[in-house]
């Protein structure tokens, strides 16, 4: 059993398609999605329907929640707010209801998935350091939990000597430790690496690996500009930030 862990697609269809092709090459048998399917990018409908067709455990992200509701956007980053308002107009009522009904946290085959953190999943806190990771570990009842939200793939491990954290390429799961793993972003990476990111989790060999893939950034950028979305959302993709 090998899972593909998908997160923060953000309506970027070119990146999603390249990732899904790679999951086949990696012989993934199962999928999960950690939310932020929509928001920022130009293809919310296509990305949403592609994820729905996977029929996999999915949790809600903050952008999914904002785009599927009428939450007041005062105080939001104007760029994010513009993209949310645009996305709200694209989605059908049925699609918005589907997004709204997603849970914040889900158990899957002995591991857990969440968009942000396990301590206050509906508050959308960001985990960049050991202190924030420690708060989430207190609520983690499985050896492994995957998250997204920061668009920065950092892995945290809690072992007998405390918590370690950092960027990773492969993580071998060891007994007696807990792992809180950010899988990075498919559609809008922010670790200064513009390549789409996703993880595989091989449950037979207890191995987590991150994969980085080139995709047609120029096409996504062209679509963002043509849709009238904030141009910065196009520019940032080639810088991975
Ligand atoms: Zn996101």
List keywords for this structure.
11 strands, 241 residues, alpha/beta, Purple Acid Phosphatase, chain A, domain 2, 5-stranded mixed β-sheet
Your description of this structure?
By secondary structure, the protein is of the alpha/beta class. The protein has a single domain, classed as Metallo-dependent phosphatases (Purple Acid Phosphatase, chain A, domain 2, 4-Layer Sandwich). It contains eight helices and eleven strands. Helix 6 links the parallel strand 4 and strand 5. Helix 7 packs antiparallel against helix 8. It is globular. It starts with a strand and ends with a helix. The model has no long low-confidence stretch (mean pLDDT 97). The site of zinc ion has 7 residues, from loops.
What's the layout of helices and strands?
Layout: E1 2-6, H1 13-25, E2 30-33, H2 44-54, H3 62-67, H4 78-90, H5 93-100, E3 105-108, E4 111-114, H6 130-137, E5 144-147, E6 154-159, E7 162-167, E8 170-172, E9 178-182, E10 196-202, E11 207-213, H7 217-226, H8 231-239
Parallel strand pairs: 1-2, 4-5, 5-9
Antiparallel strand pairs: 1-10, 3-4, 6-7, 6-9, 8-11, 10-11
Helix pairs in contact: 7-8
Bound molecules: zinc ion.
Task: Give me a quick take on this structure.
The chain has eight helices and eleven strands. Helix 7 runs antiparallel to helix 8. The model has no long low-confidence stretch (mean pLDDT 97).
């Amino acid at each position: 059993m090998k899972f593909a862990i998908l997160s923060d697609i953000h309506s970027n269809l070119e990146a999603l398609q390249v990732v899904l092709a790679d999951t086949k090459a990696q012989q993934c048998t199962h999928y999960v999605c950690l939310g932020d399917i929509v928001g920022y990018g130009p293809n919310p409908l296509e990305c949403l329907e592609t994820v729905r067709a996977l029929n996999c455990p999915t949790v809600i992200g903050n952008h999914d929640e904002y785009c599927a509701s009428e939450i007041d956007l005062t105080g939001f980053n104007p760029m994010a707010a513009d993209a949310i308002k645009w996305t709200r107009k694209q989605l059908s009522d049925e699609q918005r209801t589907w997004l709204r009904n997603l849970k914040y946290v889900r158990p899957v085959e002995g591991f857990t998935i969440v968009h942000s953190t396990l301590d206050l999943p509906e508050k959308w806190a960001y985990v960049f350091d050991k202190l924030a990771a420690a708060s989430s570990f207190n609520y983690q009842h499985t050896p492994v939990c995957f998250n997204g939200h920061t668009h920065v793939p950092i892995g945290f491990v809690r072992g007998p000597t405390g918590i370690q954290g950092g960027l990773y390429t492969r993580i071998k799961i060891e007994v007696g430790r807990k792992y809180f793993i950010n899988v990075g972003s498919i559609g809008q990476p922010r670790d200064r690496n513009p390549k789409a990111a996703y993880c595989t989790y091989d449950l037979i060999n207890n191995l987590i690996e991150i994969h980085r893939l080139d995709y047609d950034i120029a096409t996504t950028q062209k679509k963002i500009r043509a849709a009238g979305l904030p141009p910065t959302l196009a520019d940032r993709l080639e810088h991975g930030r």
